[in-house]
Design goal:
Elements: E1 3-7, H1 12-23, E2 27-32, H2 40-51, E3 56-60, H3 66-79, E4 86-89, H4 96-101, H5 103-109
Parallel strand pairs: 1-2, 1-4, 2-3
Helix pairs in contact: 1-2
């Protein structure tokens, strides 16, 4: 059993990756900022499906806030002797129209 840090966990692809990892018996710390680039209810629905799963933990953090992200990782490492096997970065802001209107938000987020 490995432990993974998965960003963008409320998104379409990352939520499915989380399900697959949990199905394999791994632990998943999912991170998402729950932005409103598209309907937040879709993100909430995906998260609801994960929240009751054994081995899943969620933190609402924006990955561009490095201080909060570092604090989360340090806290998690102190609470558990198991390090992360990998960071799977699937966080990205979606929405073509919004990216044209405010490109720097996308440049900052889609690291």
């Amino acid at each position: 059993m490995a432990r993974y840090l998965l960003t963008g966990v409320a998104g379409f692809i990352a939520s499915r990756v989380a399900e697959l990892l949990l199905d394999e018996g791994h632990l998943v710390l999912g991170v998402d900022n729950m932005n409103d680039a598209y309907d937040v209810r879709m993100k909430e629905y995906r998260l609801e499906r994960l929240m009751d799963r054994y081995g899943f933990k969620f933190a609402q953090i924006d990955i561009s806030d490095l201080e909060k992200l570092e604090d989360l990782i340090q806290t998690e490492l102190q609470e558990s002797e198991q390090e992360f096997a990998a960071v799977i970065n699937l966080a990205a802001r979606a929405g073509v129209r919004q990216s044209v209107e405010n490109p720097w938000v996308y440049v900052d987020t889609n690291v």
